Amino acid sequence: MSHVHPDGKLNSMPDTPANRTQAQSRINELRQAIQKHNYRYYVEAAPVISDGRFDQLLEELQELERQYPDLVTADSPTQRVGGEPIEGFVTHEHARPMLSIDNTYKLQHEASEKSPNSMLAWYERIVKGLENRTDGLAYFCEPKIDGVAISLRYEEGQLVRALTRGDGQRGDDVTANIRTVRAIPLSIQEAPSVLEIRGEVFMTFSGFASLNRQRAENGEPLFANPRNATAGSLKQLDPKIVAQRNLQFLAHGRGEIEPESYTAHSAFLAAIDRMRVPTSRHARRLENIEDVLDFIETFDTQRADLDYPVDGIVVKVDAYDQQEALGYTSKAPRWCIAYKYAAEQGVTKLLRVDWQVGKTGKLTPRATMEPVLLAGTTVRHATLHNAGNIARLDVRIGDTVVIEKAGEIIPQVVKVNTDQRPKTAEPIAPPRHCPVCKGEVEIEIDKEENETGRFCTNPECPAQFREKLIHFAGRNQMDIDGLGEKLIDQLLEAELIEHFADLYRLKPTTLAGLERMGEKSAQNVVDAIAASKQRGLARGLASLGIRHVGSATARTLAAEFGDIGALMEADEARLAEVSDVGPVVAAALHTYLHSSAGRETIALLRGAGLDLTGSQTAASPDDSPLAGKTIVLTGSLESFTRNQLQEKLEALGAKVTSSVSSKTDLLIAGAEPGSKLDKARQLGITTWDERQLLKELNK
Ligand code: IVH
Fold first, then answer.
1. Pocket residue to mutate for ligand 1, from 94, 96, 99, 101, most atoms within 8 A of Cβ
2. Atom of ligand 1 nearest to the CA of 316
3. Is the beta carbon of 404 within 6 A of some atom in ligand 1?
4. N or C terminus of the chain with fewer C-beta within 10 Å?
């Protein structure tokens, strides 16, 4: 029975016992239905109702839960959208160590005589390990998914915790993020009282591509591959962002199970599959090693059709008693082996090389080739990295080249088939002038005198400026919402921007004149630009795209100098004195700050009203007892990564440096602290452990 009116609107019912009972039963019905449709949609990819109908069910449930807030449960599908942001990750011990696989072998295509030696060697070790009691020996073969391993803990059928592997003993608690993954059930019926399921969280290629497209539009840095994107998503402190990342999950193992209910891996997977936990449809139980080798070979071709990254096959001894008999090395189980497929390669012809100009003026050679199908996509471009690499490969225009894609977005040229080189093949001449502005080019070489990079040195190069603008507006710099690549191209095209500072003069009416730009979005962009004036010195410096001056260095400099004026007065030697700066960075920074272009940029930005003092993250540092303190971190902490803690301390007005000296005010020592702790003790410097740190931070 539902309370839905014919017009689809819900009716608020008075809270009588009868209505309440009715609401509860409808809530149960809706939750079950939504769970089922979630599974159909996210796991089986075979929905049986429309998205609209699904949303209706969810809305009806939300409405009922709004009327009866005490009937909301943690496993309700309404609780997936992502809770409040968290401060940092806490770690927890795994109930059973979470091991990895250290037997990883590359599949040798050349030696595919059906029995690669490493596999036979493993087989022999197994037989020996089982002391020839190989009755009923069977193997379980699964795709090895390139994602992030996660352990899910269900107690009495409720998902209570999700941990990353961490060091195998303890992992980060990522429960809030994992709850947003639609394929992972929040509750399981008829589960053993403790059920730990381990598996891989990953991103599909299509999900990855659309995430990167979106990031490009927002001027955010791109993820290199789906695994990095997954890991980055799970490290998000805000589950609402994770909820949008469309993460997937497939189970491949177990942790603690109480009471022990299964006797083999295949039986365990079949059981959790019935509990609607996603498992791989491509996995096979096989009874002899020859079949295993066949499976590995045939799956290599099948994997090209999958929309997610599979980089090999994991082979496990199926029966748990045989697994136990084989046991473990210090790091990994002896009953498990992994085969890694070679990265997919394609052969094609090199047509052209263009030199692209980056934000620091770096010129990167991009190859255009005859289109070739590689790892499921048509590839036309590959990177050649730099002129040194071109020389090393001896690659020429017209050559037949081998390209490879190892899960990265941009394929690379790995080899030239010189025996197929046409007489007309032309050497690639690295540019001596910028291909866009014809500016002077500077060549960078390493100790062995190999060329590692070429740079356009013209500070007014328009190609550099486009990249610089994208960087300037990016999430980690001035964080200007709505000012992405497309809008930047439009602004440049319309000649509305010649300097960063011109952004701050844009009017809503000017922007509204651009294609695909409504009045409201124009106003939003102008507001976002204005808001960026308050980002402070650290972000301001990082946004300028000065070579070697990224976020971390900019933060150090901001903490040391406090405002742009002081920074500009410092000579090169003074800059090099700053910890973590050093002579190379100091030289690049000093050159920039005293070049006419650098001076002009800074003057114009100040003129536009940019606050280039302090560090904006240091909201009210004066209130904190840590303000102005010089702090050194050592050892590993459980509640924070180094970077998180550094940002936090700097936000409180502290300066974080890397080595202990008489200037150090405080040492924060995590586990296994090392020599910095001894030195701090000798110098009588105050030392806090993590507990004390948390106490002080919570004050
Ligand atoms: S079994 C103790 N099965 O690959 C057994 N791992 O390179 C360890 N992985 O740490 C895991 N797919 O994160 C297993 N079907 C699969 C897997 C898989 C991907 C990951 C897992 C593991 C890593 C080892």
1. 101
2. 1
3. no
4. C
Q: How far is the CA of 249 from the centre of ligand 1 (A)?
A: 13
Write down the mean pLDDT value for the chain. 87
CATH 3.40.50.300 fits 536-616, yes or no: no
Decide if pLDDT at 4 tops 70: no
Predicted structure pTM score: 0.63
Closest CA to 374 of 396, 403, 394, 350: 403
**505, 529 Cβ separation under 8 angstroms:** no
Q: Which of 211, 241, 234, 246 is nearest to 83 (CA)?
A: 241
Of the ranges 23-32, 263-272, 579-588, which one carries the lowest mean pLDDT score?
579-588
Residue 375, pLDDT score? 67
Helix (H, G, I), strand (E, B) or coil at 229: helix
Q: Is the pLDDT of residue 529 over 90?
A: yes
Strand-pairing partners, residue 314, are 142, 338
Smallest CA separation from ligand 1 atom 3, residue: 252
Tell me the one-letter amino acid at 498.
Answer: E
Q: Does 252 sit in the ligand 1 pocket, CB within 6 Å? A: yes
Is 144 among the residues known to form the active site?
yes
Can you identify the CATH homologous superfamily of domain 139-340?
Answer: DNA ligase/mRNA capping enzyme (3.30.470.30)
Rounded distance from Cα 144 to ligand 1 centre (Å)? 6
Q: Within 10 A of 565 (CB to CB), how many other CB atoms are there?
A: 12
156: left (phi over 0), alpha (psi -120 to 50) or beta: left
Q: Architecture of domain 17-80 in CATH?
A: Orthogonal Bundle (1.10)
**Structural fold of domain 345-427:** OB fold (Dihydrolipoamide Acetyltransferase, E2P) (2.40.50)
**150 Cβ inside 6 Å of ligand 1:** no
Residue nearest to atom 13 of ligand 1 (CA): 149
Domain spanning 462-534 has what CATH number?
Answer: 1.10.150.20
| Given the residues 144, 405, 648, 655, the one annotated as active site | 144
Please work out whether the CB of residue 99 comes within 6 Å of at least one atom of ligand 1: yes
Q: What is the mean pLDDT of residues 298-311?
A: 87
Is the Cβ atom of 138 under 6 angstroms away from ligand 1? no
